[in-house]
Amino acid sequence: MSKLLRIGFGAAVAALALVAASASLAVTAKPSITRFTPSTAKPGATVTIMGKNLKGAKAVEFAGLKGTFKVVSTTKITAKVPGKAKSGKIAVVTSAGTAVSSSTLKV
């Protein structure tokens, strides 16, 4: 009986270890930007960024300058163009990586 108890306990510990390892290895998908609107905006204007895996964004950058932003959903962010922004790409930074727009925002 003690062998069965040890095997049962060992299996339970192994199962818990597997669950813990799976949770720590959970990979968040890299973000991507599919489009943004408008394509031309002045400093202070709000830009809507559409893409994938945007939830959990840590920063939104306009040509390297951080802007204030709100994550609306996993596919949508609204962000304000910073005061000193110049024309350039938009980037969304998450823990899984950085997405950069394929087109340029004209400021």
What is the end-to-end distance? 76 Å
CATH architecture classification name of one domain: Sandwich
**Could you give a short account of the major beta sheet?**
4 strands, antiparallel
**Structural class label:** alpha+beta
Secondary structure tally: strands: 8
- Briefly, what CATH class of one domain? Mainly Beta
Low-confidence stretches: 12-21
Please give the share of residues in helix: 10-25%
Radius of gyration (CA) equals 22 Å
CATH superfamily of one domain: Immunoglobulins
The geometry reads as globular
Give the rounded overall mean pLDDT: 85
**How many alpha or pi helices?**
1
Determine the strand fraction and express it as a percent band: 35-45%
Q: How do the strands line up in the largest sheet?
A: 1-2-6-5
Structural account:
With 107 residues, this protein is an alpha+beta fold. The model is unreliable at 12-21 (pLDDT under 50). The strands form two sheets. The protein has a four-stranded antiparallel β-sheet, with no helix packed on it. A four-stranded antiparallel β-sheet has the order 4-3-7-8, with no helix packed on it. 21% of the residues lie in helices and 36% in strands. The radius of gyration is 22 Å and the shape is globular. The chain is built from one helix and eight strands. The chain has a domain at 32-100: Sandwich (Immunoglobulin-like), CATH 2.60.40.
